[in-house]
Design brief:
Shape of chain A: globular
Number of domains of chain B: 1
CATH architecture of the largest domain in chain A: 3-Layer(aba) Sandwich
CATH architecture of chain B: 3-Layer(aba) Sandwich
Strand content of chain B: 5-15%
Largest sheet of chain B: 5 strands, parallel
Largest interface: A-B, 30 and 36 residues
Number of helices of chain B: 11
Number of domains of chain A: 2
CATH topology of the largest domain in chain A: Rossmann fold
Strand order of the largest sheet of chain B: 1-2-3-5-4
Structural class of chain B: alpha/beta
Order of helices and strands of chain A: EHEHHEHEHHEHEHEEEEHEEHEHEHH
Oligomer: heterodimer
CATH superfamily of the largest domain in chain A: Thiamin diphosphate (ThDP)-binding fold, Pyr/PP domains
Distance between the termini of chain A: 36 Å
Strand content of chain A: 15-25%
Largest sheet of chain A: 7 strands, mixed
Low-confidence stretches of chain A: none
Structural class of chain A: alpha/beta
Helix content of chain A: 40-55%
CATH class of the largest domain in chain A: Alpha Beta
Radius of gyration of chain A: 18 Å
Chain lengths: ~300, ~300
């Protein structure tokens, strides 16, 4: 499989699933060309709705459609849709409406558009809401399975997707399961738990660390809520050192979720890698290097964490 | 249903609103009393529903976007048979499905969680579209508060609704009613953030608008008929109402937006709702055992 953006994989998966499930509809707020639902709306003009640049109304209309038996995919940039927190909180979460919220353009990896377009705190907000499941796939295969899962899942789902292409990381026989993480590479000295865009870089970092005699276990954490406590605890008790890697604020995202769980269940030295402060404009590679999310930056942060 | 019968129901609902709020010790009498005639006309005059099958796919739906007036909705749901009337006094109590603001998951008959203002119209719009897509004959009634119309999301939905689903699935199955009682929590709406010209605003957004007296059951019913007859677009009814309607000391008084009556105030309110003078009240109670028991029930709250 070639590298593909998870938003592109999402658009393809939706088109495929919609052919056999008439309940699926899409809602967009003037970004359907970017969220990759434009083709769906063109193929099924009676099932693709563009609500204009009015995300709160889009979320609420999605809730209403869900309450009549439709399965609405409510799509925008992660920051714009998750920013309608109060509407998601009441109209979707508290109502337990079967809405699938799709946030694309996650993280600093979107590059040149700069901070205002970057989803960097979306998981932190939505993770606090009861009833809301959060999934962040790491490659095309996993995205397509996650979309299929979201259709079957009863209740609100937040699907966090990337603008940038993602190298394949999951094996061909991989099957997504909610609450189950995938160990991509076994190791004994440190556990790297990564999610979404930077998973491939975490693997690359592990290869660099191996050259320096450090055995890193790499786990792909697509299921952010619920997280996979069994896999987390098993790996942490083996390596005694945990590092989280995400293109999101280190506050309240994957790192926050792992920190909360470890602190309660198995206190373990932890380093959260991700974004601190605001993002900025720049080329995506340069931004990843600046924020230490490139393979070299990840590897050196891990070494520093391990005092090696 | 004849107006006299509906009027009797609305009166009984008003009594229950006062009763449940007094038991709760908190809540919103003003907006509940202003909206009850509208709710009564919808629920007992035209709603196609089945309390035994609250999830019936083709049922008409009510989205009470001004969720703080939910005591009014609870009284109609109880009377319609969704739950026993005796449960009304569990309002706002720990463990009760009668939450302070509507909770769809907790109570069958509630169509949407509301109370965080500005969200109900979008939900109602989505429902109306979903029903149209499914070929259902069901209607959706959405009730907005006037203060609520200050919320931006209301105008997002207002701009969207006349266009959504066009041309095959226009949401002409959606009737929206503004309970225009002129008062919000802090003060008069005109003083906080005036909505005027309200009718012109909605018209400019593409809505056919009717203006009525929201306490005249015949006018409400006629307007709902007209809204149902409008094709190709959703309809708006601006219902001019009186906050606290039916209780003189609550009427048009911002203080009664969000405060529950004390037992003696509740008794006075019930007497006024029943249209009995102070002088005639002792004799009246001798002839109406139910009300007499209710008065005793409320006065007993003072001793608790």
């Amino acid at each position: 499989m070639a590298a593909k953006a998870s938003r592109a994989a999402f658009g393809e998966a939706l088109l495929e699933l919609a052919a056999r499930d008439p309940r699926i509809v899409t809602l967009d707020a003037d970004l359907s060309k970017s969220t990759m639902t434009a083709k769906f709306a063109k193929t099924y003009p009676e099932r693709g709705f563009n609500l204009g640049i009015a995300e709160s109304n889009m979320v609420g209309v999605g809730a209403g459609l869900a309450l009549t038996g439709k399965i609405p995919f409510v799509c925008s940039f992660a920051c714009f849709v998750a920013g309608r927190f109060e509407t998601i909180r009441i109209s979707v979460a508290y109502t337990n409406a079967n809405v699938k919220i799709v946030g694309t353009h996650a993280g600093i990896a979107i590059g040149e558009d700069g901070y205002s377009q970057m989803g960097l705190e979306d998981i932190a907000g939505l993770r606090a809401l009861p009833n809301v499941t959060i999934i962040q796939p790491a490659d095309e295969l996993e995205t397509k399975q996650a979309v299929a899962y979201a259709v079957e899942h009863q209740g609100p789902v937040y699907l966090r997707l990337t603008r940038q292409n993602l190298e394949p990381v999951c094996p061909a026989d991989y099957r997504f399961q909610l609450g189950r993480w995938l160990t991509l590479r076994p190791g004994t000295d440190v556990t790297l738990i990564a999610s979404g865009g930077p998973v491939f870089n975490a693997l690359e970092a592990a290869r660099k660390l191996e050259a320096d005699g450090i055995s890193a276990e790499v786990i792909n954490a697509a299921s952010i809520k619920p997280l996979d406590e069994d896999t987390l605890v098993r790996s942490a008790s083996k390596t005694k050192h945990v590092v989280t890697v995400e293109d999101h604020s280190i506050h309240g995202g994957l790192g926050g979720a792992v920190a909360e769980t470890l602190a309660e269940v198995l206190p373990t030295p932890l380093k959260r890698l991700g974004v601190t402060g605001f993002g900025e404009s720049g080329d995506p590679k340069g931004l990843y290097a600046k924020h230490g999310l490139d393979p070299g930056g990840l590897a050196s942060s891990v070494k520093k964490f391990l005092n090696r | 249903m004849a107006d006299a019968k509906l009027e009797a129901i609305a009166r009984a609902c008003r009594v229950q609103i006062i009763r449940m709020l007094t038991h709760a010790g908190s809540g919103h009498p003003g907006g509940s009393l202003s909206v009850i005639d509208i709710l009564t006309t919808i629920v007992f005059g035209r709603l196609r529903h089945d309390p035994q099958r609250p999830d019936w796919a083709d049922r008409d739906r009510i989205v009470l976007s001004k969720g703080h007036a939910v005591p009014a909705l609870y009284t109609t749901l109880a009377r319609a048979g969704y739950f026993p009337e005796s449960q009304l006094i569990t309002l706002r109590k720990l463990g009760s499905p009668l939450q302070g603001h509507p909770d769809r998951v907790a109570l069958p008959g509630i169509e949407a969680a509301t109370g965080s203002l500005g969200q109900g119209l979008s939900i109602a719009l989505g429902m109306a579209l979903g029903l149209k897509l499914a070929g259902s004959p069901a209607r959706v009634y959405c009730i907005l508060g006037d203060g609520e119309v200050q919320e931006g999301q209301v105008w997002e939905a207002a701009m969207s609704a006349p266009k959504l689903g066009q041309p095959q699935h226009p949401v002409d199955n959606l009737t929206v009613i503004v309970d225009y009682n002129k008062i919000q929590l802090d003060d008069f709406v005109a003083k906080i953030l005036d909505l005027e010209p309200l009718v012109a605003k909605w018209q400019a957004f593409g809505w056919p608008v009717q203006e009525i007296d929201g306490h005249d059951l015949a006018q409400i019913d006629k307007a709902l008929d007209q809204a149902e007859a409008n094709r190709g677009r959703p309809s708006l009814i601006v219902a001019h109402t009186v906050k606290g309607k039916g209780v003189s000391f609550m009427e048009n008084n911002p203080e009664w937006h969000g405060k529950s009556p004390k037992p003696e105030e509740a008794v006075a309110a019930i007497r006024e709702i029943l249209g009995v003078s102070e002088a005639a009240w002792p004799d009246y109670l001798k002839t109406d055992a139910t009300t007499c028991a209710l008065v005793d029930e409320l006065r007993a709250l003072d001793k608790k």
